[in-house]
From TrEMBL:
It comes from the Eukaryota. Keywords: Calmodulin-binding. It comes from Gossypium laxum. One of its GO terms (molecular function) is calmodulin binding. Residues 159-207 are annotated as: Disordered. PANTHER family: IQ-DOMAIN 5-RELATED (PTHR32295), PROTEIN IQ-DOMAIN 10 (PTHR32295:SF134). The keyword Metal-binding does not apply. Coiled coil: none annotated. Belongs to the IQD family. This is Protein IQ-DOMAIN 1. The lineage of its organism: Eukaryota, Viridiplantae, Streptophyta, Embryophyta, Tracheophyta.
Amino acid sequence: FILQARKAVRRLRDAGRFKNILIQGHTVKKQTTSTLSYLHSWCNVQSQIRARRICMVTEGRLKQKKMENQMKLEAKLHELEVEWCGGSETMEEILSRIQQREEAAVKRERAMAYAFSHQWRANASQYLGQASYGAGKENWGWSWIERWIAARPWEVRNHSQPIHPKKTHGRQASKSEKEMKVLASVKPCLPNGKVAPKAKNGAPSDG
């Protein structure tokens, strides 16, 4: 009977220990879950703080750059205002003056291109006899190298044409034969202005 009682007490103790272990395991699991959730929330907060800091730094740099550009623009406009009229003008008038100045520069460049194109045509007509090139608006954007090469196409042609001495010799011979025939066909004139009669074959040539 005593042995059975001891065994029962041991079983109760083991059951209590097991129950305590289960309770502790559940508590630890719950604590672990809550800790992980807290860590996840903390990581989210840190990422949001980091993103906000980056955004604030970027916005600050953009604002600073915008302010610097605005200050530079205002200083430049003030210098232009003092340079042009020496008095105070509105922003619209200054901007219109800047636009007029840019348009004048564009017109001056176009006039220079037009004058250069006419000079190029004159040089081309001097060397080639007549020029068949027009000065259109599409040629105003050429660089000076392209215009210089386009203005001298005859040099490329002279270098590209081969020289054939045989053909030139044959042409000179045919040309001399034609000249001899023309001279033979010309009838001599007498002192009285009449044309001399053509001599017949075999007749004497004197008198």
